[in-house]
């Protein structure tokens, strides 16, 4: 039996209320694909029967599981390359140049899924930062399931094959039976925490925020609200990294787009108490009207 319109609407409403992600009509196949495993675990014939059961007598854990299954997104190591190139060649060197070899860098990786993104950030930092510098990465997601794997830092060969450079694998991963595990030193630099972007955001300030391939799932009003609140937990001049199909254009005047080599980043500009060094520029920002030049070659767009 295919998923009925009534059952799809119930699931879509549940996901919208709990994550702000809108499942538009036509996504029935996604619901059936993602929830089929859950239905089979319970010995049910199909997803339609699962939804009916949850509606009639489901627990809070059942509803949370449905939301988790439908909000777990695609991920890979060093995904899209350019953000990590900008991080390696421009952003991190600029921070060290401004703050010195003992620089402390705080990063937030939002919607981190099974951990490939924050560990990719940690690996990049390990390659660039001097031994006297430190990086603290907060990685968040709303799914307990993906966070459990992320905390373990353990991945199958198939998962490793999705974007992991051989040089990074040799340096930062160790064999764990038939799987690979991120080495303990690197794991210690990342803290994983359950968090919904609709809730109060983590305490900052963060020098760098990765919020990639997340905003595309939200309505304009929700995007605006998230970006406004993200700006509040970033250091003045902090760098926001979005997905290649995402932009802050038309969303919020607190952001300025800058070029960092071949990639584009967004720099927060907001009033600050006193003069705070900008992560992005080496300038000192004391007010919002400060002009933010490019991180590297090229000018502001």
List the defining traits of the structure above.
three-stranded antiparallel beta sheet; methyltransferase; SAM-dependent_MTases_sf; Rossmann fold; alpha/beta; CheR_N; 301 residues; Chemotaxis Receptor Methyltransferase Cher, domain 1; single chain; globular; disordered C terminus
SSE layout:
Layout: H1 5-19, H2 28-41, H3 47-57, H4 60-71, H5 82-99, E1 104-109, H6 116-128, E2 134-141, H7 144-152, E3 154-155, H8 157-160, H9 166-172, E4 173-176, E5 179-182, H10 184-188, E6 190-194, E7 206-211, H11 220-232, E8 234-242, E9 255-260, E10 263-268, E11 276-277, E12 284-285
Parallel strand pairs: 1-2, 1-7, 2-6, 7-8
Antiparallel strand pairs: 3-5, 4-5, 8-10, 9-10, 11-12
Largest sheet, strands/sense/barrel: 7 strands, mixed
Number of helices: 11
Strand content: 15-25%
Query: Structural class, from secondary structure content?
Result: alpha/beta
Q: How does CATH name the architecture of the largest domain?
A: 3-Layer(aba) Sandwich
* CATH C-level name of the largest domain: Alpha Beta
Strand elements, count: 12
Compose a concise summary of this entry.
The chain is α/β, with parallel strands linked by helices.
């Amino acid at each position: 039996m295919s998923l009925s319109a009534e059952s799809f609407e119930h699931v879509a409403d549940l996901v919208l209320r709990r994550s702000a992600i809108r499942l538009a009509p036509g996504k029935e196949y996604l619901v059936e694909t993602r929830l089929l495993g859950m239905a089979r675990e319970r010995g049910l014939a199909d997803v339609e029967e699962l939804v009916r059961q949850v509606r009639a007598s489901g627990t809070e854990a059942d509803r949370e599981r449905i939301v988790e299954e439908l909000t777990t997104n695609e991920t890979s190591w060093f995904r899209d390359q350019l953000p990590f190139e900008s991080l390696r060649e421009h952003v991190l060197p600029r921070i060290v140049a401004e703050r010195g070899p003992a620089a402390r860098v705080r990063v937030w990786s939002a919607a981190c899924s099974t951990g490939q993104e924050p560990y990719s950030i940690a690996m990049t930092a390990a390659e660039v930062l001097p031994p006297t510098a430190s990086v603290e990465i907060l990685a968040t997601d709303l799914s307990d399931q993906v966070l459990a794997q992320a905390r373990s830092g353990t991945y199958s060969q198939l998962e490793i094959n999705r974007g992991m450079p051989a040089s990074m694998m040799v340096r930062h991963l160790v064999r764990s039976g038939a799987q690979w595990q991120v080495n303990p030193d690197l794991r210690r630099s990342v803290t994983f925490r359950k968090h919904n972007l609709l809730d109060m955001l983590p305490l900052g300030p963060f020098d760098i925020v990765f919020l990639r391939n997340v905003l595309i799932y939200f309505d304009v009003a929700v995007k605006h609200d998230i970006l406004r609140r993200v700006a509040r937990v970033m250091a003045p001049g902090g760098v926001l990294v979005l997905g290649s199909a995402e932009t802050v254009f038309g969303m919020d005047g607190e952001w300025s787009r800058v070029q960092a080599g071949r990639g584009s980043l967004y720099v927060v500009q907001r009033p600050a108490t006193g003069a705070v060094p900008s992560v992005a520029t080496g300038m000192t920002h004391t007010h919002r009207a400060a002009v933010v030049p490019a991180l590297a070659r090229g000018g502001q767009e």
